[in-house]
Amino acid sequence: MSMSIEQKLSLDKFVVDEGNPHIVVHADKLDEATIKALTVGCPAGLYTLNEKGQLAFEVAGCLECGTCRVICAHKPGGMEWNHPRPSFGVQYRFG
Fold first, then answer.
1. What sign results for the dihedral spanned by CA atoms 87, 89, 94, 95?
2. In angstroms, rounded to a whole number, what is the distance separating the alpha carbons of residues 11 and 4?
3. pLDDT(95) > 70
4. Which residue would you say has higher pLDDT here, 17 or 38?
5. Which of 48, 67, 91, 94 sits most deeply, having the most CB atoms within 10 A of its CB?
6. What confidence tens digit (pLDDT) does each residue in 23-56 have?
7. 8-state DSSP, 55
8. Does residue 59 contact residue 21 with C-beta atoms inside 8 Å?
9. Which of 42, 39, 59 is CA-nearest to residue 50?
10. Nearest 5°: phi and psi at 54?
11. Residues 46/58, Cβ–Cβ less than 8 Å
């Protein structure tokens, strides 16, 4: 029996480094097109627009794939992206 992507991802473990996120977004330095790309490009769906239409980001659940880093590469200062500190971040448990 095959598993859906959601079922596979639910097996992963996420250890969040509270107070020291590995991604910091500076939405004020991003244009509307880049913000839209973040909301549709993140495979974990962690970038959303809040009720005021402002970019919101939740680091918990980050797959550390780097998609957001690539999306923001043309906007200097729009994002700080570092690898999580040792023992933090995603721990893949499937395949």
1. negative
2. 11
3. no
4. 38
5. 67
6. 999 999 999 999 999 999 999 999 999 999 999 9
7. E
8. yes
9. 39
10. -95, 150
11. yes
Name 56's bridge partners: 48
Cβ atoms of 72 and 78 within 8 Å: the answer is yes
Token pair belonging to 86: 């040792």
Question: In the structure, what pLDDT confidence band is assigned to residue 22 with cuts at 50, 70 and 90?
Answer: very high
Handedness of CA 72, 45, 37, 32 (dihedral sign): negative
Model-level pTM?
A: 0.84
Distance CA 42, CA 68 (A): 7
HEC-encoded secondary structure of 8-45 = HHCCCEEECCCCCCCEEECHHHCCHHHHHHHHHHCCCC
